[in-house]
Amino acid sequence: MTRILLALCISMLLLLSGCGSVPLTGRQQILLVSDSDVLTTSLTQYSEFMKSAKVSTNKTKTDMVVRVGRKIAAATEAYLKANGMEAELKNFAWEFNLVQSADVNAFCMPGGKIVVYEGILPFMATDDELAAVLGHEVAHAVAKHANERMSQQVLAEAGGTVLQESLGKKSSTVQALAGTVYGLGAQYGVMLPFSRKHEYEADRMGLIFMAMAGYNPQAAITFWTKMAQGKSGSVPEFMSTHPSDANRIAELNRYMQEAMQHYKK
User: Fold this and answer.
1) Are strands 106-109 and 113-117 parallel, antiparallel or unpaired?
2) Its pTM surpasses 0.85
């Protein structure tokens, strides 16, 4: 019984020391894995992916992805600085890549490594619609959703003193968890699907980040409407575990007024 109580106490202390909050939304989250460990493992996975990926030869579209991505990243960093979160900037080294693939997909690794597949571009007629996707991906990185998911796995797979021992041997533990959270060869490209809670949160944050960068957040509605209409019986990978079309658009409209205030500024 004493060992069980000790284990519970250790777990509670770890949870308390690993709490954080998401920028913009203020949602409380558990972050048991250090930013440095998450970034190290994600950079390894990202580097391996880019070695095997075929980078797009379409200069116009590549320039578009880089241009829009950099503007959103700059606006996001300006927001963090203005709101007392300048220390978070060390966690980001933004990269925006367009790769040759017919898959309708895009993903973001921790640290701001974002990849867009050519297959999603036909759904984007304007920079604003591209900004809806890139804002969403940037939001995943800023909200540390991968870290949170990894921390949840730590809790699910270990308890008590085992949890303490696991986090005490971070290198091997984090590497093992990384393989299941965003390991190379995982389902849907590199990143495994986020939870719908994370998707809704990234939608809201993405709307605001794109608006801060000067892109019309209403374009998110037109983009997701086209995505829904373009399914043709099969669900694109980018949408496979995402909220339903109607629910997603309803949530986007719910936060549209907030986003438009930033856009007007």
Assistant:
1) antiparallel
2) no
Give me the residues paired with residue 28 across strands.
21
Q: Are 128 and 219 in contact (CB under 8 A)?
A: yes
For the chain, give the mean pLDDT.
82
- Mean pLDDT along residues 151-174: 58
C-alpha distance from residue 7 to each of 14, 17, 134, 151, 214 (Å): 11, 15, 42, 17, 50
Q: Which two tokens stand for residue 256?
A: 């549209």
Q: What is the pLDDT of residue 245?
A: 73
pLDDT tens, residue by residue, 40-84: 988 988 998 999 999 999 999 999 999 999 999 999 999 999 999
- For residue 264, the Cα-to-chain-centroid distance in whole angstroms is 26
Report the distance separating Cα 239 and Cα 232, nearest Å.
Answer: 13
How far is Cα 40 from Cα 43, in angstroms, rounded to an integer? Answer: 5
Report the pLDDT value the prediction gives residue 176, as an integer from 0 to 100: 58
| Tokens of residue 50, six digits | 């880019």
Q: Cite the active site residues.
A: 137
CA–CA separation, 65 vs 100, rounded Å?
13
Q: Are 138 and 88 in contact (CB under 8 A)?
A: no
Among candidates 189, 154, 198, which has minimal Cα distance to 174?
154
